[in-house]
Structures are given as C-alpha cells and as structure tokens.
Amino acid sequence: MTAATKGTSMLYTMRSHYDELDETFRQHLNDSQDSRCLLNLLEFPGVELMPALVCYFLKFYNITENVFCFNGQVLSISLEDVLFLTGLPIDGDAVISNDNRDVDGFRRVFQLENEKNKTFKELKKVAKDVNLDNDTRKKAVLLLMVRCFIVPNCNGHTVTTTYLRFIEDLSRVDSYAWGAALLAFLYHAIAEWKKETSAKKTLEGNTWVILSFFILRIPKLRMALSIDLNLSQLRIPFMLPIVNQVKRISRNHRANYEEVLDNIFLNLSHVDVEWTPYIRSYHPQQRFGTRVGPIICNNFVVHHQPHIAYKQFPVFKLYYRKSLDWKPYDIKFKKNSGSSSQNLLKHYKKEFEWWKAKKLAQELMKEKNPVLCISKQEPLVSEELIHNKEEEQFDYSDNEQQQKGPQFGGASGVSGSEHVSPNDAEQPEDSPVQDNFREQLHKRSIEESCDCTTSELQWVGLDDRISRLENIFNEIKSAKLCGTSGVKLEM
To answer: Do residues 314 and 459 make contact, with C-beta atoms less than 8 angstroms apart?
Structure first.
C-alpha cells in the first residue's frame, strides 16, 4: 500500500510560517512564558518526510490493537513515545468541547468575518500584522501550529474554529494534553486509511512521529539510513535531532530500499529493538505513559493499550499483564461535520470520565506472584498476527515445568543467568514437592530476566524480587501448604 502522507510537508509548512514573521515578533514568541508546549515546536526545521519508509512500516500495523508486529516483535507508538519525541504533554485537560461550532470565533479572536473556514493565508496575514497586539498574533500562530502538527488533515490549507477555543486563553494552552490529542488523531487516521473499504489516498496525522519512532528504536534502520544518534545524550524532544539527521539524507531512495527494509524487519528479533530508549531520561509526566483507556482529540477518541507492547515498559515486569481489569470496547464515532452544533462531551461522556480517572495499566493488574494460580487467557495480540508461540505459561500446581516461547538475551548480550544465582544457603530437608517448588521459583526468576535488557533489570530490582519470592516460599512452607500437590494458593 502506498499513499501520500500529510507529514510530507508538515514541518516545512510550519517552519515557513515562522520564518515569514518579523524578527521582533519571533523574539517575542521565543521569550513567551505561556503556551511553551506548542511554541517549543518552532525549533523544528523545515524538512520533507520520507513517505516510502512510513508506508512500509504501516504494512505491519494492526488497526484493532494499534500495534506494529514484525516477526513476532510487537511495538506500539504510545503516549510515552509522544511525550519524549515531541515534548507535548500527555496528561492534563482533554482536548474536547461541549460545542464543536464556534460561529463567532474568528470575529471574536481575530476580528475577521465570521465564516466556517479560514485559509492558511488569511491566518498568516493576522500573524504578520504588526498593527495587531502580540497576543492576537500569537493565537494565529498557535492555531496554525495545531493544524500543522497536532491534527494535519486533508482539508487543504484551511482552518476551522474547532480548535480555536483551546488556544484562545493563552494562560491555559499548556494545560491541555496535546500529546494525547496528537496520538488519538494519528491512531484514528491510520485506522481509517488502512480499512479495506477506505477510499482515502492520503494518510492524515503526524506521520513524523511514526518515522522517528522506528529510527529511534531500530539501530539497524539507523545504520541503513546512515543516521548517527547517541541515545545517552538525547534530550526532549528526541524528535529534533532525528529530524535534523533526516534533513541531510537524499530524497532519492535506492532501488533496493525495500529489500534492505525486508532484511531488517522480516527477521527482526528481540535484540534488534531498543525497547527502553528513554531509560536515562526524565519527564514529570512520564508515568502517564502506561495510561490505559480512551485518549481524546475532540471527536477522535480511541483506546490506548500500552500493556500489549509490554516489552517497552519495564514496570510491566512486575505485573501479570493478562490480569488487566479493563477491556477495550467499541467507541461510537461522532462525525464533526454539518452546520449544526454538537455536544461532544455528552457523546463521549463515558470516555471523558475515564480520561479524568487517570488509570494506569499497572494499577489495574495483579502483582506478579508465583503462588497465584494463573488461568490461561486469550493472548492480547492475535495469534495470526504475531506468527509465533504464546508467551511461556507456568503451571505451579504440577511437578513438571512447562515452558513455551523463545528466550532472549538482553540488549548487551548477557543472559539472565549471569545476573541471578540460586540461594546456596543451607536449608532444612524438604519434601520432593518442596524441592521442586523452590527450583521452579529460581527457574522462573532466571527465565523472566532473559527477556530483559540490563537497564531493565536495574529498573525492576530483580534481586529484591527474588528475595521477596524466597520469603513467600518460607511462609508457605511454615504453613505446611506447599506439600499439597494441586492446591490453589491465593495470597
């Protein structure tokens, strides 16, 4: 599938608007204390996207679960990625209103005639007008930025009043979850473009996020594109140095570029992915990267399911992701069309309330504990999609260990067994069942560590967890429960 993408000229258009402003006003924007989350985006240079690469990645995208799957490796562009790539907030007020029509908006804010749409040219004229006050001019710049970066669409170079209310009060611009809005719009846009019945030829949404995501996470892709990134030195927004690197790459792809990509992605293994590129970075909102449930961009409301791409989040090592006490459901889409006003807050009341609840996936999961009886559930990612075995299951009530699925070493090539060693301290003589249970505890800990990178092990604190498991074992043994085969133990 090939198509044009709105990201092709997105950054170029946004930058050209900024460069046409007078120097005095540009300095005013740089010095402004409000609206920084959007104004900081003006640092991005005007660069053309590499649409052929984006279209290649999207061949492996599953619109039901919003994930990419390459040779069994499941990756998802999450809120965490948007936060670190763009610096846009992923927590805050939802970008949604109770009235999607602001018939008096253009006159009230820009002293323009009340019309349904305004062109980029008309808003640029407002932004460049030195006779207007700086706040009015700034609002015109912000509205163009929302249109170019948050919700780039196929409506030509036109702007509606839909997002005007979110930039009208400059003191509140930074309070909105623009990063969540960007991702919700992008998820929806990809799903619409990939539907078999879709007639869309142009992919909407911020497709630069897609390209940056893969350049950041796949070292072999960086090597193929001759992109040099030192992950330990990257700072938010991570996308800026990536864009600067892409800027110097020729637009002329080699004839065999698809063959090169196939060699990388059709054979992609666990060790070929930078699962935790943000491990050395910090942002006060990064904990919301595991937020589960609906994310909102006006009438574009979709589910965010970070637990499906669990390898991207070290915190999920502590929890049974299949025990998540939340399930996705069909969200009834409300078209933002027609001349009559619509109350989107009323239509998406359930989703809006869930957004305000700020539920994190790990808060809705059971803590990992080997003495819990785990019931087998359907895999979260479709078996026909991942083309490999289920993740390993472990039966704690039987003397025979059953293990499924491949085991992987960490990114550094060090196996988990080099990090974990059995407890050699003398123990009282145990029954065969007790011996087996102890052995299974250690094997389970070692096996789990094989699916971690070195940095993930530091994050999780594996030694502390093993110590805790030993304590649980001793408590069970003292209660004389672990000698009973087949007993369901619940803590």
So the answer is: yes
